[in-house]
C-alpha cells in the first residue's frame, strides 16, 4: 500500500487524487492521508511575516521522513528549492494552467485607467509588486485561506477584485464567469505544476512514481526554480519566472520587482532544449548584475524590521 500525504484543502485533495488515480491505473494500491499544514492553520498572518518558505510543505516533509507516509503531493510552486536531506522530487507531472486570473465583481473599468483607484486582494508578494507596477494607485489587501475561502472573502468584502492562480480555480471547477487571465503577469516559478516527493531511499515508491514524470515540464520548472534559487528568493520575494517548450526550443522569461513595484528587472532567453540546462541560473546572474542584488537586500532589510 502506497500512502499519499496531502493537505486537506479541496485543491490539495484534487491533486493528491490525481496522483492516486495514476498510480492505481498502473496497478498500485493507494490510500490518502490528509495532514493539515502550518500554512493552513494560520490564515490571518501575511505569508511574508511567517516565513513562507516551505510553510505548506514542511509538515508533509516531516511525515515522509518519519515514515508515516510514502509520498507527499504538492503544488510545485510551494516547494523550497532546497529539499530536506533524504527527500527527492520523484515525479513532476505534466503542467496544467500556468497564468494568474483576476476575479472581479462585474466591472473592470479600473483596469483601463492606470490612475484609477481600486481595491485588489492577494496574499502574494509577487502579485502585489507586479500589480503596483502597473496600477500604482490601487490599494492591495491581504487574502489568505484555501481557494473556496478566498472566493467567499472576496464576495463579502468591499473589494473590486482578487488575484488567483488559474490552476487553483480550474482544477476544482470553481472559476467564476467574472474572471479574466492576466496575460501580462509573469507567474511564480513552477506555477501550475504538481510534484510527488518521497524518501530518497524508497526505491519501490520511486519506481512507482517514475511513469508519472513529464520531461518537458521538468525541464522548464527546473530552470524556473534555478532562477529563483540563484536569486536566493522564496515566496517572500517578488520573483517571477516562466518557461515553455515549442519546436525544440525553450523560451524563458524571468523578473524581479521591488516590493512597491517601482523598480523591475526583466530578462528573456530562447535556447535549444538540448542546451536549456543552466538557463535560469544565467538569467538570474544577469538580473543581479543589473542592480537586482540591491533590491533583494532592500527586501530582506524591510522584512527583518
UniProtKB/TrEMBL annotation:
MF GO annotations: hydroxymethylbilane synthase activity
EC number: 2.5.1.61
Coiled-coil spans in chain: none
Domain Porphobilinogen deaminase C-terminal: start-end pairs: 219-288
Keywords noted in UniProt: Porphyrin biosynthesis, Transferase
Pathway terms, separated by semicolons: Porphyrin-containing compound metabolism; protoporphyrin-IX biosynthesis; coproporphyrinogen-III from 5-aminolevulinate: step 2/4
Entry keyword Ribonucleoprotein: no
UniProt keyword annotation of Transferase present: yes
Catalytic activity: 4 porphobilinogen + H2O = hydroxymethylbilane + 4 NH4(+)
CDD domains, per database record: PBP2_PBGD_2
Uppermost EC category: transferase
Cofactor: dipyrromethane
Domain Porphobilinogen deaminase N-terminal: from-to ranges: 2-206
TM annotation in the entry: none
NCBIfam families linked: hemC
UniProt record similarity statement: Belongs to the HMBS family.
UniProt subunit comment: Monomer.
Function according to Swiss-Prot or TrEMBL: Tetrapolymerization of the monopyrrole PBG into the hydroxymethylbilane pre-uroporphyrinogen in several discrete steps.
Protein name from the UniProt record: Hydroxymethylbilane synthase
